[in-house]
Description:
Blueprint: H1 9-12, H2 15-18, H3 22-34, E1 40-42, H4 44-50, H5 54-62, E2 67-68, E3 74-76, H6 80-83, H7 97-103, H8 116-122, H9 130-136, H10 168-174, H11 181-196, H12 198-202, H13 205-223, E4 228-231, E5 234-237, H14 238-245, H15 250-261, H16 270-280, H17 288-302
Antiparallel strand pairs: 1-3, 2-3, 4-5
Helix pairs in contact: 11-13, 13-15, 14-16, 15-17
Amino acid sequence: MAEKRMLSKSFLNNASFMKMSDSAKLLYVYLNVNADDDGIVEAYPYVRMLGTPDDDVKILLAKEFLYMLNEDLLVFLPHWLQNQTLRTTRYTPSIYRFKLLNSNPDFFTRLKQISIEKILKAGQTEMLRNDLIEKWYPVGLPKDDHGHAQVRLGQVSSDQSRSGKVSLGEIREDQSINLSDDMEVEIMRQKIKNQIGYNALKSNPCYKRIVEDIVNIIQSIYSEKSKTYRINREEKSANEVIEKVEQLNQFDIESAIDSFNAIDHEIHNLNLYWITTLYNCKNTVSSRAYNNFVTQTREVLYD
Length: 303
């Protein structure tokens, strides 16, 4: 990894960046300096070291200067290539490159275009989804002399990796390399956590106790696609509920938890309560959490 990093004038002088707090801008500079060659970095140590307020991290995420990859604040800097000039001879692919692309394939154009051989040689924490392999590498993964795909997974737990070579036929038969049912579930859960701002919610004592249950409920909604639900005295299909839930963000979940915490009577069917609440959540745009966010954002943008 390089010892020197750059920040372009066009990026630093952008109004959206300049109107953030000094502490948010300082955190971004530290992350930019310490990111790997694909712009991915573990932000948590620098948040702790700098004493960065949670609101600064939220603003960086909301403005899309950061994209969160997991609950431990592994983040990607989407403007990475706007700031960096990377020589191919000195470039080392991130071990999280496939993890990022599995989470958000749209970032493919925001990464340095490099041969698949070099990416695989660097090692990856998880294998690229089969549909993305077929989309970007239609001829398949590079093969050795025995016709096996040259796959190397680095820094993954033993239950997520298989020793030896894996044939391309096995990839298509299993739909992915090492994406077992458990791993498919974990990918789904990670997408849900990214969607609802899990890390920020988990750090708030008011939401910490409930947020894991909400992730479980959303996961069950996404998984049970043949189910119907009785909501607002009407039968709703799973697809109708999923469509509503997919629109939710961190501030909707904060509003839902605030409403739940204010209830002073027993809820007999907690699962149905949460499904109904999540379905109706977008209609509650006047929630305290949403208004607080809008106020904070306006202060950053217009002060």
